[in-house]
Prior knowledge:
Elements: E1 2-5, H1 20-28, E2 32-35, H2 47-52, E3 56-57, E4 66-72, H3 75-78, E5 86-90, H4 97-106, E6 109-112, H5 127-146, E7 154-156, E8 159-161, E9 165-169, H6 173-184, E10 188-192, H7 199-204, E11 208-209, H8 228-244, E12 247-250, H9 265-268, E13 276-279, E14 296-299, E15 302-305, H10 315-333, H11 349-352, E16 353-356, E17 359-360, H12 363-368
Parallel strand pairs: 1-2, 1-4, 2-3, 4-5, 5-6, 9-10, 9-12, 10-11, 12-13, 13-15
Antiparallel strand pairs: 6-16, 7-8, 14-15, 16-17
Helix pairs in contact: 5-6, 5-10
Amino acid sequence: MxxxxxxxxxxxxxxxxxxxxxxxxxVEWGWDVTVEPGAGIxxxxxxxLFADEGATMSSDASDADIVLRAGLTTPNEAEQYQSGxxxxxxxxxxxxxxxxxxxxxxxxxxxxxxxxxxxxxxxSMDALSSQATVGGYAAVLLAAQQSPKFLPMLVTAAGTIPPxxxxxxxxxxxxxxxxxxxxxxxxxxxxxxxxPETREQVESLGAKFVEAPTTETxxxxxxxxxxxxxxxxxxAALAPHVKEADLIITTAQIPGRxxxxxxxxxxxxxxxxxxxxxxMAAASGxxxxxxxxxxxxxxxxxxxxxxxxxxxxVAADASNMLARNMLTVLERARDEDGSVAFAEDTEVxxxxxxxxxxxxxxxxxxxxxxxxxxxxx
Length: 377
């Protein structure tokens, strides 16, 4: 089995999909490992560390059976791979039609990490969650850096400075990590999620749960969309907390769907001058009406940031976590004879194998590409 670790070309992508530790495991399995020169340098893993574990350093992926990617593959990159190659990484498989069509044309098998089921069995392979943990941590540090206020309460000879008020909207993995990080920095934290069962998690971290309309979750564990009446009541309930906040982190998003709107421009206008918002959902439409992907917007004397790849700002640990996710995926796919099987694993890897040998396999990907409904698999 030949595996290729690609160097990400995007300037903003500093992660790598394998580390010297996971490369060592692949070599122990008897696999031939090729690492593109410079693949890990921005994450703190120079080429010699990979070579020391038995990897060959080369940019030639032409004979690779499996390619591991840390960043979002582009259509042009997909068409450079040889037909029959399996590519594992992030693909936006329910939204990015151009990329999915490119993968079909190239005859690839695509294992999309976004499509790993949210089950106990798949937790160690859940790259969305591992990278969201990094993102939630980084979002609080980013907001703190932009804020003109201290986060903790300080009692000094010059007087007492009250703690910053931080509001976290969306209490998934990223939100929980944001709460924990803001609390460690000494802030007074409030948090809200439409799923009522998150109250206990919020309070266990020392934050206060915001009373606002809630809803049920779908089969995948994500919150269901709310109607206009519930959204209006949601805005009304959140408005006073938004007004009082010094820092806001929004994290609410669902793979393959537009992010829910949680903060309107009118709500932003009520905030204190110098307040900061980090919208982690900016790439999928945003939780904050004025936010824009990868831009800093200043409106109503409030700074709104829309970062789309916070995990890359903590590249070393984000790469370590992602590499372990990748390793676990391949451990599950690997057979005793050294071959791999993805689509055949109906519990975990099958649902994530969105394209098989150039043909869309996941129902949502097939719908995206216009396949007739009766042909869905």
